[in-house]
Write a structure and sequence with these properties.
The chain is built from 13 helices and 13 strands. It is α/β, with parallel strands linked by helices. The two termini are 18 Å apart.
Length: 345
């Protein structure tokens, strides 16, 4: 494994972990978050944007309000007005969704794109963590698994090494105010991480991904020939939607697939029962990873440092402090604009 832009101390201890595991000879494994941990930027948000830009939906104009607001008990007045606008624009655009050339010439197209972008980035992301995670799956309502996999593949091709790092949107509301949102765009391989996974496999250490994103999207990214991760799809744990009798996705998430917050720890527990031991390592970057990073018996916890993030700050303070009774925490700095690792001591 090349040092590349690894934090020097983190690189040292990861190599020690791999060497120690190899000397024991017993089955072992690691678990990692995906978005902004194993790979740069968020596959769910980038797929969402691609879907918005290309109107790749299967639900009708009569169903879009339910898609946007289901599970939300009370929608603020300003957001309800935004949903009204989205619904009106979608009714106009819907008949042309299979003809992009015509679609993008319709005045309501830019309005719809900007409104949908704001709704998810600024409103959905402000909701309770679990609800927010589920809301990002609702846009796949009435799609088949094959359609979602095709969509994910198209989004990966479109956003792979995308030349810009930001995509900004502004929607003008009927009362004259404007709403702005910004997305980190581009789906980039983190060479240090694909190197690490390769080294782990070569040392017979299994690799699992546990993500709060829609499972299919992460599977397609992790196994894609466009990147060097080449992870098996069955190594991915993530949100799954229940299908109807015709094989199309509903908006109901399978209970045992809610891999966010405590759900990530529950997923690790199932792996522990299989391997008869906790993981060697868990890697994460956000508050959604806290329960996994504090899982009982975890040997190493690697935190991708993207700035102050809630409870993770307590774990960062423990980084590199010898603690024979608990988890040994590591830090890896990151350039948040480019999504690349930053070298450190």
């Amino acid at each position: 494994m090349q040092e590349r832009l690894w934090n020097k101390r983190t690189f040292k201890y990861l190599n020690k972990m791999i060497k120690d595991a190899g000397s024991k000879g017993s089955p072992s494994y690691i678990v990692s978050d995906w978005d902004n941990t194993a790979a740069s930027f968020d596959v769910e948000e980038n797929t969402l944007l691609y879907q918005i830009l290309n109107l790749r939906y299967e639900f009708t104009p009569q169903e879009i309000r339910e898609v946007l607001t289901c599970e939300i008990d009370s929608v603020p007045e300003e957001i309800n007005e935004l949903v009204d606008k989205i619904e009106e624009d979608y009714k106009i655009l819907y008949p042309y969704r299979r003809d992009l050339n015509k679609l993008k010439k319709i005045p309501e197209y830019e309005s719809f794109v900007a409104a949908m972008a704001y709704y998810f980035q600024s409103y959905v992301n402000s909701l309770e963590y679990g609800l927010s995670s589920r809301k990002f799956t609702h846009v796949f309502y009435k799609m088949t698994e094959e359609e979602v996999r095709d969509l994910a593949g198209d989004a990966l091709s479109y956003f792979k090494d995308y030349k810009d790092y930001k995509m900004n949107f502004k929607v003008n509301m009927p009362k004259g105010e404007s709403l702005s949102s910004s997305y980190d765009v581009g789906l980039r391989e983190i060479k240090e991480m694909s190197d690490l996974f390769k080294e782990l496999f070569e040392n017979k250490i299994d690799v699992y991904i546990c993500s709060a994103s829609f499972k299919i999207l992460v599977e397609e990214f992790a196994s894609s020939k466009l990147f060097n991760y080449r992870l098996p799809k069955d190594s991915v744990m993530g949100l799954e939607l229940i299908k109807d009798k015709e094989g199309r996705f509903t908006m109901e998430v399978k209970e045992d697939s809610k891999t966010y917050l405590q759900g990530k720890a529950d997923a690790i527990k199932r792996l522990e029962e299989r391997y008869k031991c906790p993981p060697l390592l868990y890697m994460g970057d956000s508050r959604g990873d806290y329960y996994a990073l504090t899982y009982s018996g975890l040997q190493y916890g690697l935190i991708i440092d993207r700035g102050p993030i809630g409870k993770l700050e307590d774990l960062k303070k423990l980084a590199f402090k010898e603690n024979p009774q608990g988890t040994f925490y590591l830090i890896q700095e990151r350039d948040n604009y480019k999504g690349e690792f930053k070298n450190g001591n």
